[in-house]
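Why should sequence recovery work at all? Because a backbone constrains its sequence more than one might expect. Tight turns favour small or flexible residues, buried strands favour hydrophobic ones, and helices have their own preferences. The token representation captures these environments compactly. In the example below, the structure is given first.
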């Protein structure tokens, strides 16, 4: 887990971006509550297994998935990826852990466990998918929050 967080710091610490001046100054406890609500909202939409949860992502974001190189993704590529998954599988989120939040002024990290299954629509074979989900949320210029980095570690 520490390796993932350190990788995250290197990836985002080295970017040469213009910092967005946040519209709202938020205390760490308020930010923790806000991001916890954001994570809860993401999962409540994700459990419907349509594509609305993709709106929680920035137009471009960095992804670290098992057995894949670190890659720059777009919401469109994420949509295409999940269209292929939903065409082949019924997905059920069985459980998720409460998120741990690491707040900052205009960014926050959340991570929690997840446990879901993918049921093949033709064979009814089941694939268990469980692990840790790590997300970097970034405050946008309109004071909304979007995912700019995600990493999945499967058990």
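From this structural description, the recovered sequence reads:
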């Amino acid at each position: 887990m520490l390796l993932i967080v350190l990788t995250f710091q290197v990836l985002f610490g080295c970017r040469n971006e213009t910092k967005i001046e946040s519209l709202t100054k938020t205390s760490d406890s308020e930010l923790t509550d806000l991001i916890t609500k954001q994570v809860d909202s993401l999962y409540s939409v994700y459990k419907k297994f349509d594509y609305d949860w993709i709106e929680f992502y920035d137009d471009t974001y960095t992804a670290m998935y098992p057995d894949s190189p670190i890659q720059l993704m777009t919401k469109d590529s994420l949509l295409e990826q999940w269209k292929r998954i939903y065409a082949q599988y019924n997905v059920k989120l069985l459980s998720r852990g409460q998120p741990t939040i690491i707040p900052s002024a205009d960014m926050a990290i959340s991570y929690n466990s997840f446990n879901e299954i993918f049921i093949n629509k033709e064979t009814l074979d089941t694939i268990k998918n469980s692990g840790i989900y790590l997300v970097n949320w970034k405050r946008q210029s309109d004071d909304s929050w979007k995912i700019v980095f995600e990493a999945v570690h499967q058990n």
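A few observations help interpret the result. The chain has three helices and seven strands.
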